[in-house]
Amino acid sequence: MDRKQCVRCLNNSTVRRMSLDDSGQCCYCTRYDRIRSQLEDRERLSELFRQRIEQVRGKYPYDAAVGISGGKDSMYVLYQLVRVYGLKVRAFTMRNGFFSPQAQANTDRIVQELGVEHSYIDFDPSLLKRFFRYSMQHWLTPCIACSYIGYAAMINYTAKIGAGLCIHGRSPQQMLRYYGDDVFTGFVDAGLRPPQEVDVQALYQELLGLTGTHLDKSIAGDVRGILFDGVKAEDFREFVPFFLYHPYEESQIVQFLRENTSWSPSQDYDHYDCTIHHAAHYIYQCAEGRPHCLPEISVLVRSGKLSREEGLRLTEHARYHEKPAEALHTLCDTVGLREEPLFLKAWLYRHLVKK
After folding, report:
1. Is there a single domain that holds both residue 48 and residue 188?
2. Does residue 305 share a domain with residue 219?
3. Rounded Cα distance, 256 and 263, in Å
4. Looking at the domain assignment, is residue 21 inside a domain?
5. Position 2 confidence tier, pLDDT thresholds 50, 70, 90
6. 324 is a domain residue
7. For residue 285, is it within any domain?
């Protein structure tokens, strides 16, 4: 297959919806450059975050609601908000059917250490199965379904408990990998403006409209139902990305947690909280012909945090050379799909559709 390659980052024609301009740069590099000066202005970013927390501090039952998974990023965010910023926080964890026991143990222990109120959010198993089947059949990954359900539930929960903000720990690489095409691009753009300039209700209505174009009517209706479960549109609070305003260095975050908390994941701490993570990324690799993380590593390359050579080495290191059998069995058994048709569809997509 002929792969068109961005001259700046690692993106190529395996990245969906990628296009190149006359200079050979991909559309994601071009879009990144439009906001690059804002992303690198640390003083202004710190002030924007300060404005957001001071605007709500002490005015609601909770200053912020924070979704935590037991993973490094969300645990670090929780610690910073409680111990550094001194916010009154209510933490919550969504159990999507693939939440690992080790992550739950870490979650229970850390919220107790920090003295934070915490709740688990459970979903109707039949709803989860339908969402995940749809996601697997349409995109060959369960992760998109998890994102739609998760963000709707987080925003809804924040409104229900009367928190001033909903703060999440998505990394810059995750936020910017498909910037401009991602349904959630609006949260990044809103976050780069002063809080008084953000029309939260209009933002959510716009995002719901985009959701309707990406999902069939039934599934989109379920997302809307989760979002509006028991709350009015005017009750919604801003969905704030912590790492839009704060430096993100994975190794430093891991070291910080190990030195300052009892956080103790397995050696494979990246996404250890999800029992099907490796299955999802393996299927994606079979369909796209490259590791799932390539667009995220491209963010690091275009922002100058990695050289192209370093990025290529990291991408290759992430490549699966063996099938994660146990995780695949868990995924397929839970959503009621067989492996063979999934991998046939992945093969057809890679060799025929992508051409």
Report:
1. yes
2. no
3. 10
4. no
5. low
6. yes
7. yes
The residue behind tokens 């430093």 is 252
- Tens-digit pLDDT profile for residues 160-212: 999 999 999 999 999 999 999 987 899 999 999 999 999 999 999 888 887 87
**CB of 207 closer than 8 Å to CB of 236:** no
Helix, coil or strand: residue 276: coil
- Please count the structural domains in the chain: 2
Domain boundary among 245, 266, 300: 245
Q: Is the pLDDT of residue 355 over 50?
A: no
Query: What is the domain extent for residue 205?
Result: 39-245
Q: Which amino acid appears at position 111 of this protein? A: V
pLDDT range class, residue 1, cuts 50, 70, 90: very low
Note whether 183 and 80 are same-domain residues.
yes
Pick from 67, 52, 49, 56: nearest CA to 156: 67
Q: Which residues of 152-162 are buried (b: 16+ CB within 10 A; e: fewer)?
A: bbbbbbbbeee
**Cα torsion angle, 102, 120, 250, 300, sign:** positive
- 22-35 pLDDT per residue, tens: 999 999 999 999 99
Residue 268 reports pLDDT greater than 80: no
CA distances to 190, 203, 241 from 186, rounded to whole Å, are 6, 7, 11
